[in-house]
C-alpha cells in the first residue's frame, strides 16, 4: 500500500561538543532545571545553561531560576499569533543553544529541522510504558501503581514529533514497593532522574554514539 504522507527522516545525534550550551524548558517547579545547575556547579557536568523559558507564565520554576541567576525569558513576552514552538526555538536559536532539555515541559513541541536530534526529554517511567498524552507528573506514578508492575524508573530520550516516542538514551530503574503511594514512588524515581539527565547530556555531547534506527550504538 502506498502513502502520500510526507515521511520524516530518522533522527540523528549531533556532533560532539565540548561544553554544550543548554536551553532548558520547564512548565512546573523547576527542580529538574536546578538539579542540572547543581551538577554543573559541582563540576560533574561540563555544560552551561544559557537559556531558560517555560510553556506557561505562572511556572514556579521561572522565579526559582531567576533567583539562581539563570538567564530566563518570560513566556508572557510571546507575541499573540506566534506559536509556542516557533517562539521557543527562536529564543533558543538566538542564544546559540547546542542541546535543549525538556525538564518537566508539558506542551507538545514542533521541532524545527535545525534542532532535530538536539532535544532531550526526561520522563518519570520506563518508556515505552506509561508515556504519551496525559502522562505527566504524579499521573505517571499513579498509573504505574495501578498496573501492579514491581519496577519503575525514568527515561531520557530524544524528542521526536510525538509525546515520549523518540529513541531512548538513558534509563534508570528502581523497585516499586508494596506500600508505595504516588508520592513515595515519585521520590524514589526522582533519585534516579537526578543522575539520568546529566548522564544523557554527557552521552549526546560526547559524540561517541549514533542511532541505528531507534537503537543507540557506539559510533
Ligand atoms: N515533540 C515532543 N514534545 C514533547 C515531548 C516529546 O517527546 N516530543 N515530551 C513531552 C514531555 N511529556 C513527558 O515526558 C509530556 C508532557 C505533557 C503531556 C500532556 O499530556 N500534556 C497535556 C497538557 C498538560 C498541561 O499543560 O498541564 C496535553 O497535551 O494536553 C504528555 C507528555 C514534552 N513535549
Ligand atoms: N511527562 C513529563 C514528566 O512527567 N516529567 C516529569 O515532571 C517532573 C518535573 O518536575 P519539575 O518541574 O519540578 O522539574 C519530573 O519528575 C519529570 O520527570
Automatic annotation (TrEMBL):
Marked site positions, Raises pKa of active site His: 164
InterPro entries linked: Formyl_transf_N, Formyl_transf_N_sf, GART, GART_AS
Regions that span the bilayer: none
Single GO cellular component term: cytoplasm
Pathway: Purine metabolism; IMP biosynthesis via de novo pathway; N(2)-formyl-N(1)-(5-phospho-D-ribosyl)glycinamide from N(1)-(5-phospho-D-ribosyl)glycinamide (10-formyl THF route): step 1/1
Active-site residues, record numbering mapped to chain: 123 (proton donor)
Nucleotidyltransferase listed as a keyword: no
Xref: Pfam families: Formyl_trans_N
Binding-site residues for (6R)-10-formyltetrahydrofolate, renumbered to this chain: 78, 121
CDD domains: FMT_core_GART
The enzyme's E.C. designation: 2.1.2.2
MF-aspect GO terms: phosphoribosylglycinamide formyltransferase activity
Sequence ranges assigned to domain Formyl transferase N-terminal in this UniProt record: 22-201
UniProt KW keywords: Purine biosynthesis, Transferase
Record field: catalytic activity: N(1)-(5-phospho-beta-D-ribosyl)glycinamide + (6R)-10-formyltetrahydrofolate = N(2)-formyl-N(1)-(5-phospho-beta-D-ribosyl)glycinamide + (6S)-5,6,7,8-tetrahydrofolate + H(+)
Protein purpose: Catalyzes the transfer of a formyl group from 10-formyltetrahydrofolate to 5-phospho-ribosyl-glycinamide (GAR), producing 5-phospho-ribosyl-N-formylglycinamide (FGAR) and tetrahydrofolate.
UniProt record similarity statement: Belongs to the GART family.
PANTHER family documented for this protein: PHOSPHORIBOSYLGLYCINAMIDE FORMYLTRANSFERASE (PTHR43369:SF2)
Protein name (database record): Phosphoribosylglycinamide formyltransferase
Gene source species: Phycisphaera mikurensis (strain NBRC 102666 / KCTC 22515 / FYK2301M01)
Amino acid at each position: 500500500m502506498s502513502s502520500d504522507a510526507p515521511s520524516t527522516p530518522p533522527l540523528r545525534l549531533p556532533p560532539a561538543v565540548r561544553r554544550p550550551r543548554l536551553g532548558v524548558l520547564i512548565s512546573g517547579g523547576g527542580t529538574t532545571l536546578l538539579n542540572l545547575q547543581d551538577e554543573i556547579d559541582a563540576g560533574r557536568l561540563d555544560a552551561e545553561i544559557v537559556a531558560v523559558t517555560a510553556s506557561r507564565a505562572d511556572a514556579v520554576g521561572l522565579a526559582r531560576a531567576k533567583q539562581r541567576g539563570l538567564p530566563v525569558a518570560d513566556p508572557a513576552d510571546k507575541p499573540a499569533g506566534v506559536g509556542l514552538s516557533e517562539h521557543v526555538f527562536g529564543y533558543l536559536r538566538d542564544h546559540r543553544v547546542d542541546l535543549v532539555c525538556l525538564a518537566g515541559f508539558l506542551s507538545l513541541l514542533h521541532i524545527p529541522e535545525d534542532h532535530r536530534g538536539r532535544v532531550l526529554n526526561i520522563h518519570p517511567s520506563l518508556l515505552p510504558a506509561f508515556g504519551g498524552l496525559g502522562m505527566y507528573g504524579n499521573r505517571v506514578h499513579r498509573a504505574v501503581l495501578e498496573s501492579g508492575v514491581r519496577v519503575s524508573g525514568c527515561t531520557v530520550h530524544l524528542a521526536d514529533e510525538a509525546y515520549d516516542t523518540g529513541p531512548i538514551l538513558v534509563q534508570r530503574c528502581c523497585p516499586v514497593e508494596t506500600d508505595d503511594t504516588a508520592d513515595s514512588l515519585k521520590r524514589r524515581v526522582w533519585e534516579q532522574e537526578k543522575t539520568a539527565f546529566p548522564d544523557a547530556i554527557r552521552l549526546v555531547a560526547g559524540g561517541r554514539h549514533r542511532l541505528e534506527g531507534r537503537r543507540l550504538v557506539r559510533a
